[in-house]
């Protein structure tokens, strides 16, 4: 978890697509401005938020399952949710066969991260994707 090679692999390897769980329509929220930054730097953003229809010019999906069922397989799942939500997200990713989870800075669930890694999911946790992208 959090290996520099994992960070480089996630951020540098095409396809450059990110499903953002908890993406808010509020420009003041980190999920919004971090996603906007990634979008401005060439990443395709897929908002996952059942409460909104669209954000950052992209259709919002109610769940990862519905996104993948539509034929879209994001390279990274970026999570802006409380730590207690992470286990269900990991389980959904394992079911869908999604390879990379990025759990944003300040969000920690070691048990869910270990479960993800045991299932073959690459994990970055408690790091900001925007900050790490700037470092590359």
From TrEMBL:
Q: Which SMART domains match?
A: CoA_binding
Gene3D superfamilies named among the record's database cross-references: NAD(P)-binding Rossmann-like Domain
What is the top-level taxon of the source organism?
A: Bacteria
Pfam families xref list: CoA_binding_2 (PF13380)
CoA-binding domain location, by residue? Answer: 11-108
Q: What is this protein called?
A: Succinyl-CoA synthetase
Query: What organism does this protein naturally occur in?
Result: Granulicella sibirica
């Amino acid at each position: 978890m959090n290996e520099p090679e994992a960070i480089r692999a996630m951020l540098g390897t095409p396809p450059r697509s990110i499903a953002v769980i908890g993406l808010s329509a509020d420009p003041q929220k980190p999920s919004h401005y971090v996603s906007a930054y990634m979008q401005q730097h060439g990443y395709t953003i897929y908002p996952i938020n059942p409460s909104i229809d669209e954000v950052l010019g992209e259709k919002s999906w109610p769940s990862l399952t519905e996104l993948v069922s539509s034929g879209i397989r994001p390279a990274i799942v970026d999570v802006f949710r409380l730590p207690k939500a992470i286990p269900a997200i990991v389980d959904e990713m394992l079911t869908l066969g999604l390879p990379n989870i990025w759990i944003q800075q300040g969000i920690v669930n070691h048990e869910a991260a270990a479960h993800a890694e045991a299932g073959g999911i690459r994990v970055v946790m408690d790091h900001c994707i925007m900050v790490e992208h700037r470092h590359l």
